[in-house]
UniProtKB/TrEMBL annotation:
Residues 5-114 form the Cyclic nucleotide-binding domain. InterPro entries: cNMP-bd_dom (IPR000595), cNMP-bd_dom_sf (IPR018490), RmlC-like_jellyroll (IPR014710). It comes from marine sediment metagenome. This is Cyclic nucleotide-binding domain-containing protein. CDD domains: CAP_ED. Pfam families: cNMP_binding.
Length: 192
């Protein structure tokens, strides 16, 4: 039986039931406590993860040493530091559990096996990477073209679990604003 998480993430018409079962068999379920790291800056990624429950974030330190959250990963999404994993480079980012998380890990060598043996995995991977590139470009444009209030409202609508589970400081840095600005935006939204 293929768990719903895998059916959701590895959704592609080319996958056969046998291939899906093979994919599931190469993942290992694990937990990471709140504040724990899936990857630290300077380490090379050797796996990617499917998030079954909880919230994960990517973050860097700016030139003044401040933590800047660059991405949140929610349930039914993939945690993947793509440049580190596929180019075998030390990561420039940290990947940290915002809450206790349950993830399914697939190591680099097992993914490479799947990628080289199944056309369906190659097609799925190509489509996933294209979608991630689109989302990344969209975020860059929205950071310039939308107000902080608009970005916050969109985040509330599309990813309410981030608003519910992440600390204010992490959300503010993700939106590119100060904590005090986010507090003001929240007050304005809640005002009658």
């Amino acid at each position: 039986m293929v768990p719903t998480l895998f059916q959701s993430i590895y959704r592609h018409p080319l996958f056969t039931m046998g291939e899906m079962e093979q994919i599931v068999s190469l993942h290992t379920k694990t937990t990471v406590k709140k504040g724990g790291f899936l990857l630290e800056k300077g380490d090379t990624a050797n796996a990617y993860y499917l998030v079954e429950s909880g919230l994960v974030r990517f973050f860097v330190h700016d030139y003044e040493g401040n933590e800047i959250t660059t991405q949140f990963i929610c349930e039914n999404e993939i945690v993947n530091e793509v440049s580190s994993l596929f180019q075998r480079l030390p990561s420039e980012q940290n990947i940290q559990a915002v809450t206790d998380v349950t993830v399914w890990k697939i190591d680099f060598n097992n993914f490479q096996y799947l990628y080289h043996h199944y056309e369906s995995v190659r097609e799925w991977g190509r489509e996933w990477m294209s979608a991630q590139l689109f989302l990344s470009q969209l975020r860059h444009v929205e950071m310039i073209t939308q107000t902080a209030s608009s970005r916050y409202l969109k985040l509330m609508e599309q990813k309410p679990q981030i608003i519910q589970q992440a600390p204010l400081k992490q959300i503010a840095s993700f939106l590119g604003i100060a904590d005090t600005s986010l507090s003001r935006i929240r007050r304005e939204i809640l005002a009658p």
